[in-house]
Each structure stands twice: as structure tokens, then as C-alpha cells.
From TrEMBL:
GO molecular function, one term: acyltransferase activity, transferring groups other than amino-acyl groups
CDD domains (alphabetical): NAT_SF
Annotated keywords: Transferase
Pfam families: Acetyltransf_1
Annotated SUPFAM superfamilies: Acyl-CoA N-acyltransferases (Nat)
Top-level taxon of origin: Bacteria
Residue ranges occupied by any N-acetyltransferase domain in the UniProt entry: 17-187
Name this polypeptide is given: Predicted acetyltransferase
Length: 195
């Protein structure tokens, strides 16, 4: 099915996903998408029971887009159905953490209307392939990401894709920049997938 014949988000499948590099003009829509996916009770990826408030800011998104070694990809809404201009996003940053050269994956979200259709798997595979191909001069050890504690279903999702828990964790920041924790014991746990 061509994206030209899509009439609603219900017609979108993993085969329709076309990613492009985000620009600073996408920041407002990215904030909207991330807040919907993580700070409302829509979809299975939400954190609404654990964290309130904002997920990110336009300034943070623009910093991510402009940061050297960082790539943020977006999936435009091909249906023009007025719901969201962007339907998904995923980012990767080449960095060194915990003594490893990694492709750190973050800013990962799929519109709740599209969750469960394999689109997240498509995005994750695409960014892993991109990172592997663009890391030739970086001696990449693997991929990493941080996930919020108390999310066993999310941990299981990533473990099925080869990511494993490590001993590295940090308390969820309570600085108001990324929401307000609703529990005192929230941590960000570091997952790693070797090449």
C-alpha cells in the first residue's frame, strides 16, 4: 500500500514507516507526541502512574537535534488526519558511557494509536542498523538505553530484542525538567546490547 492511499492512521502498518531526520521546526510536535505517549494514560508505554508533568521541552529537543553525534528521526503522519503531524520518533547518540563506546537510544515513542502494529520494532531495528553503519570510525561496543524502573512489560519488550539489564542505575531526576516522580524509589536502569 502506498502512503498516498492512506486515509487514516488505522491504515498504517510497519511497511508504511518512512523516517526522516528531525529539524528544530519539529520540536513542538515532538513535545506533543512524547507527552501523549508518556504522560497520559494512552497506550502501553505510558508512565502516567509513575511520573506527572512534562516529558521534555522544546529546548531539550532542539539541543538533542543539534548535538554532535546525535541523530533524531521522525515518522511524519502521511494521512493528514489532524491528530498528530508526527506519529513516531527515535533517537541515537554516539557516546561513551560506563566505559563502553555505545549508540545510546532514546527519545523513542510511537503514537498510542499505532502501538502494537510492529512500528516500534521497525524503528528500533532501523536505528540499530543506522548506528552500526555510521559507527565505522567509532569502534562501537553496542547499544544502550535507560528505562524507568517499575515497568516490567517494557523491560520484557527490550529483553526480547537482546537488551539486558546491567548494574548501572540512577535515581530518577527530581529537578522538574522531565516530570515529577510519583514514587520515591524510581530509578533509570541502564540496558545494554552488545554487537
Amino acid at each position: 500500500m502506498s502512503t498516498n492511499t492512506l486515509s487514516s492512521t488505522a491504515d498504517i502498518t510497519k511497511d508504511n514507516v518512512r523516517l526522516r531526520v528531525a529539524t528544530p521546526d519539529d520540536a513542538k510536535e515532538l513535545v506533543k507526541l512524547l507527552d501523549c505517549c508518556y504522560r497520559t494514560d494512552a497506550g502501553w508505554t505510558n508512565e502516567a502512574a509513575l511520573i506527572g508533568g512534562i516529558r521534555t521541552t522544546e529546548d531539550e529537543i532542539i539541543q538533542t537535534i543539534n548535538k554532535e553525534g546525535s541523530y533524531l528521526f521522525v515518522f511524519d503522519n502521511p494521512t493528514n488526519d489532524g491528530d498528530f503531524n508526527l506519529l513516531a520518533c527515535i533517537g541515537v547518540q554516539f557516546t561513551n558511557m560506563h566505559g563502553k563506546n555505545i549508540a545510546y537510544i532514546g527519545t523513542f515513542a510511537v503514537s498510542p494509536k499505532l502501538q502494537g502494529k510492529g512500528i516500534g520494532n521497525t524503528l528500533l531495528s532501523a536505528v540499530e542498523t543506522f548506528a552500526t553503519r555510521h559507527a565505522e570510525s567509532r569502534a562501537l561496543d553496542g547499544f544502550a538505553m535507560s528505562i524507568l524502573s517499575h515497568r516490567p512489560e517494557l523491560l520484557a519488550y527490550y529483553q526480547r530484542r537482546g537488551y539486558q539489564m546491567t548494574d548501572h542505575a540512577m535515581p530518577f531526576p527530581d529537578d522538574g525538567k522531565n516530570g515529577k516522580p510519583k514514587r520515591d524509589d524510581l530509578t533509570l536502569n541502564w540496558l545494554f546490547k552488545g554487537l
